[in-house]
Amino acid sequence: MFKPNCLILTLAPEICLKSTQVRIFYERFLKKNIVEYLKFDGVPYSQLLVRSGRMYIFSEKPKSVLKSIENCFGIYKFAYAEEKEIKDLEDLVELGSKLGVEKLNETFAVRAKSYDKDVKSKKIEELLGAEILKKNPKLKVNLSKPKTQLNCILIKKKVYFYFEEISGSKGMPIGTQGVVALIGKDKNKLKKIAFGLLKTGCRVLTVDNELTELAKWNNCLEPKDVSLDEAKESYSLGRIRAFFCDATTLYEKEKIDKEIGVKSFAPLFCILAPTPFD
């Protein structure tokens, strides 16, 4: 019986494409953000590992883990997985075929990724697919558009089996792009801007205008609100990288720029992608 004991997180492609040093930088931020969500919700987990562009969170309650971090930016996909310890390739095929017969139906495909130099990914797919067909001849292989799919990842003497992937919030981990300040009067417009900035990896502050309803995308905290004088001082010290405003006309933007003493960014001049606040 398939008993998930692990949640596999596929990181956003933007992270995986970075150089090793930069990727590690992003992974550390994402790991820290995930831990903040899990601590806030009191979700138990035993271990959080980073391996080859994926994170593995081990927990007896993987569904609770996913529910807690489903809005965490930087995660491309989730998958409920079962970790198994194996002796050899034959053991992997036997364990995987049992799960496959249990969960697969109609047309299927096997996708494998091996990090063992002595065991090729293609070999796993061929042997595992053949054994599943042997145990259930009613199934049919369809490599292009299968209705069901068995995935497995082999790392040393451990294998991870999973069947479905769930989309994450994507984007970049919050904090990786520095701190920015939001200034303006229209809370709905500011929320749209804040959501977009959080998704790009910025940490957001507000200036004399507290915003709510953003905590679930902001590591369970509403953005910190500061005074205009505090924001100006932080900007002069390099702690705030830029100001963003809710202006939709040049007159409004010039008025705000004069108030803060520097040029601000006005993203609402452009067409923004849909946000939860539209």
UniProtKB/TrEMBL annotation:
GO terms for cellular component: cytosol. InterPro entries: ThiI_fer, THUMP_dom, tRNA_sulfurtransferase_ThiI. Gene3D superfamilies: 3.30.2130.30. Residues 63-165 form the THUMP domain. GO terms for molecular function: RNA binding. SUPFAM superfamilies: THUMP domain-like. It holds the Pfam family ThiI_fer. Keywords: RNA-binding. One of its GO terms (biological process) is thiazole biosynthetic process. This is THUMP domain-containing protein. It comes from Candidatus Iainarchaeum sp.
